[in-house]
Amino acid sequence: MPSVSGIMETMEYGPSVEDAGAVRAWLAARGDFGHFIGGAFTAPVGPFAVIDPASGAVLAQVSQGSADDVARAVRAARKAQPKWAALSGHERARFLYAIARVIQKRERFLSVLETLNNGKPIRESRDIDVPLVVRHFYHHAGWAELRDSEFPGHTSLGVCAQVIPWNFPLLMLAWKIAPALAAGNTVVLKPAEFTPLTALAFAEICAEVGLPAGVVNIVTGDGETGELLVSADVDKVAFTGSTEVGRAIARATAGSAKRLTLELGGKSPFIVMPDADLDAAVEGVVDLIWFNQGQVCCAGSRILVAESVSARFERLLCARMERLRVGAPLDKSTDVGAIVHPIQKARILSICDRAVAAGAELVGGAAEEGCFIAPGYLRNIAPANPGMSEEIFGPIATLSTFRTPDEAADLANNTRYGLAASIWSESATVATDMAARVRAGVVWVNCANIFDAAAPFGGVRESGYGREGGRAGMLDYLAAPKVREKRDPAPKPISALPEGYGTPGQIDRTPKLYIGGAQKRPDGGASYQAQGALIPLGSRKDIRNAVEAAHAGRAKWLGLGAHGRAQVLYFIAENLSQRHREFAALTSESEVDTAIRRCFFYAGFADKFDGTTIAARPGHLVHVQPEPHGVMGIACPNGSGLAGFLSLVLPAIAVGNTVVAVASQSNPLAALMLYQVLDTSDVPGGVVNIVTGARDPLIAELAAHDDVQAIWYSGAGLEAVQMAAAETVKPVWAVPAHDWQREAAQGRAFLRHASRDKTIWLPYGALPAGTGSTSY
Fold first, then answer.
1. Number of domains within the chain
2. How far is C-alpha 597 from the chain's CA centre?
3. What CA–CA distance (Å, rounded) separates 94 from 761?
4. 81 phi/psi in degrees, rounded to 5
């Protein structure tokens, strides 16, 4: 046994194990778990074992959810939802507050239960996870109170299906249930197969505070249970998990009108610039990757270090890594706990083996007895190495070097994911420039792995879409105010006319596609008849050319800035008004008047659709910046050739997107004739690209295109479009049917769907005296 004087020399921690007696007594008293449906636990059926990953011991037996179980839970939620939604915001807020208070009183119990079931160190569940759970319910108690005043006209969606992973079992539950309940929805939640115990403890808390039966339902089980829940009669699906499963869910919900939020995988960059505080950056690696065993989707698992400081950074990193303590998660001096399950441990080791076989060198990362892996990193790793491309989801990072900021940005964005990034630099200019260039939903500057209920969280590209937390998270659980709909007439079938149809004079006068700022004949030269004219019949190749042109036009359009874009939109209105009579002959006077008003409206908003700074954690400035998706594909309404076209194109370009717009199939002439207005209004080439032809096949091509970031669809063939978009995990907005000449066909909702929030965390000021660490 070490002496006191010896400990003072080494400063080694002694064992300090958290007592799990109360949790084990609770588990023994509960016995096998059933589901929580309609305010009560069901009898256990077909139980499976839930283990302690640190020891392999069985903690409890939990029921496997069947189709009948899922159906009963959804019926209970459906029955409870009208009464829950009919409560005043204040009444819902009181329930959310009560839940927060009970969790707060049982923080120690829930922390120990979380650590026993998940394997993460007790310091993480005690100091970070459970306090954040409390924070989410307090925060959303506020949203419940303020819902009707802050979101006027919005209503609840109905029943929400929620499927969560095993890395943050209780926090992910709070992240999803709190906003759903605040908005007036009811929920059926399926926790991860490996880690259901804190969700079942939460169910007891719901019963204890008197939450109405059926408002929260918990059904346990494996992936098959999750599939049953996704396909059930629900109004929204919120999923956190792998990209592969998220893609399958997007396919399964295509055409169903279910709202969908996907928070998927990540391969996040951790960028260390030449002027970074290297000691602080090393601690950031520890916080983001190793303290949670790397089992977090936003872990900065790709460390990118400036070549000039890489040798010193690695020395510091290795020295810190060697002193991390791997061991019993309930020991308060443990740094790195257990991997959640032997299956996950085997997966991590398999990726490391393949990475080494492909030429990488593994530093540390030794497999230890039981479900433990020591922290480590892969160095000398090529971009095509599986360790660089696959989400490891373990305490193993990769380390690469760069020479210039441009190379750093290219490496950071060389991934199919876009969930988070961490940037380290002592220069505010350097850090914020890199934050703007990295394609990610969340960016931490000189900090890492920080969350707050007020800060939207979510990704881009194959990291998913939708946001959780803050105002954006609430909007994803609310239905927009209803508009006065006007049925959009279905397009008439197209009969393709071959190239050369008609007299040479007719062919010369045929309108052309508008791609890259120039008129172009369609690939193959085919056409069809509409509005008494020959209309170009766009093809798959025309779509590819238009997308390429849209990408080429992005830099110049964004470079104009918000004021410059506003001025261009005003120019469009001016030039359209100069040709009012000509366009009225193609549509109507009232439609041209509406189109001009749309130009003024979105010109006015172009420099006023601002980001916000939110009150999150002390010591940080948190800015939520709306960013354009990039290149958008838009299928325009069929019945309103001009007003419908501009009602969708203008908000998209106002916030900085470039677009490929498929014009009305039956009434395309006004959109095609806009090329002259666009050319004389200083719209850079490629910002607006206009393709005509068979609308649904053309928009399906856009939806399947890898380099298109978002789709807006106005029509009846939504399922095929969503199925095509599912392959690349891009958001599809089913544009409500509007009377496009009414004022309701414009507004913030269009701007919100034309952008996605980027949450940027910046250190700000000193912490108030007595607050200590910034961790909750």
1. 3
2. 33
3. 31
4. -60, -45
Domain of 645: which CATH number?
3.40.605.10
Q: Any residues with CB less than 8 A from the CB of 438 and at least 6 apart, and which?
A: 269, 271, 409, 412, 413, 421, 423
What is the C-alpha to C-alpha distance for residues 535 and 497, in angstroms, rounded to an integer?
10
Query: How many other β-carbons are positioned within 10 Å of the β-carbon of residue 112?
Result: 24
Confidence check: pLDDT of 7 > 70: no
CB atoms within 10 A of CB 10: 8
Look up the domain containing 450 and give its range.
Answer: 269-458
* pLDDT tens column, 726-771: 999 999 999 988 889 988 889 999 999 999 999 999 988 765 554 4
Q: What angle do CA 341, 36, 23 make, to 5 degrees?
A: 55
Same domain, 308 and 392: yes
The pLDDT of residue 776 is 33
Which of 458, 475, 503 finishes a domain?
A: 458
Q: Do 251 and 309 reside in the same domain of the chain?
A: no
Pairing of strands 48-51, 58-62: antiparallel
Domain check: are 561 and 646 in the same one? yes
Angle at 27 between CA 26 and CA 29, to 5 degrees: 65
Q: Give pTM, 2 decimals.
A: 0.93
Task: Count the Cβ atoms, other than its own, within 10 Å of residue 628.
Answer: 21
The residues, any chain, with a CB within 8 Å of residue 463's CB and separated by 6 or more, are 243, 263, 264, 265, 266, 297, 417, 418, 419, 440, 441
Catalytic residue set:
263, 297
Q: For 379-417, what is each residue's pLDDT tens digit?
A: 999 988 999 888 888 899 999 999 999 999 999 999 999
Q: What pLDDT does residue 39 have?
A: 97
Select from 458, 476, 491 the last residue of a domain: 458
Q: How far apart are CA 181 and CA 95, in angstroms?
A: 9
Please tell me whether residues 256 and 207 are part of one structural domain.
Answer: yes
225 and 368 share one domain:
no
Per-residue pLDDT of 116-129, as tens digits, reads: 999 999 999 999 99
C-alpha 639: how far from chain center = 33
Contact between 412 and 271 (Cβ < 8 Å): yes
Output the domain CATH number for residue 317.
3.40.309.10
Q: What are phi and psi of 533, to 5 degrees?
A: -135, 165
